[in-house]
Amino acid sequence: MMTINNYNDMDELQSALMKTHQGMLAFVVSEQSLLLRVANGWQYISLGRVIKPNENSLQIEKISNDGTTIEPVNGNAVGEYNLPSSGTNRHILHERKLRLVALNQPYTGDMHGVRDVDYECFRQSRRANLKGTFRAFITSRVQNLDSLVRARDSRLPVVNMKDELLFNQVRDMFTGWGAPFPYPPKIYSFDGRNIFTDQQWQQKLIWHGSDKNGIRNMDASCDSWSSDSISRFGMASNLLRGKLLDQEKYSCNNAFIVLCIEVTTERE
């Protein structure tokens, strides 16, 4: 009979990495998530929806840095989506939504500035036959992450390339808690690869250059994304810790994931 090891939070799980072997299962209590030990770390397993006597009372809890739960998301907001049954994905029902997609290769901190990355987001999205406008999900000297999407669109859901739900609303990413994923995330590149499983991205980290609220951190943006020096630093997030905007500084010579966010939809 297969056993599942329990861990209080992602920090405890990560610290036990070297004591585990491939094929082991782990349950993270703070996130209520099930993960499988694979060659490069841990991979989320989709559990499907929570079954309760009254499904209208369904709540997804946000997780703070120390693993304690804080202000649950309103159940009505969750109920607007087609949450999965076992073995299915959470496909969004809204006609309007914004996509979060990875560029097709990792980048060091020297991306030749945000404008070049914005153009690469545009170019790759067009090659993928996506008609919305995409911009780089990194900060600049004059741009915060929380202002990339217009205020009037801040209630739109955020999905991946396959229209699977990542965040209930855009603004859920900028609540000051590092943007914890409310569901086991799947993020794809413009050419359709899952960045969590594809070996193109050996490090499951994204560059972002912001604080937990999505505000730019000019001391941690690799000289405005123009340096790959080992002595310069950029703010990044380890996606395996379950957050989009976790706060970890890395030398700019590292090659990490770069995300693009859709800021205007195909239906506009």
Automatic annotation (TrEMBL):
It comes from the Eukaryota. Pfam families: Collagen_trimer, Endostatin. InterPro entries: C-type_lectin-like/link_sf, Collagenase_NC10/endostatin, CTDL_fold, XV/XVIII_trimerization_dom. Residues 7-52 form the Collagen type XV/XVIII trimerization domain. Residues 98-263 form the Collagenase NC10/endostatin domain. Gene3D superfamilies: 3.40.1620.70, Mannose-Binding Protein A, subunit A. This is Structural molecule. It comes from Dermatophagoides farinae (American house dust mite).
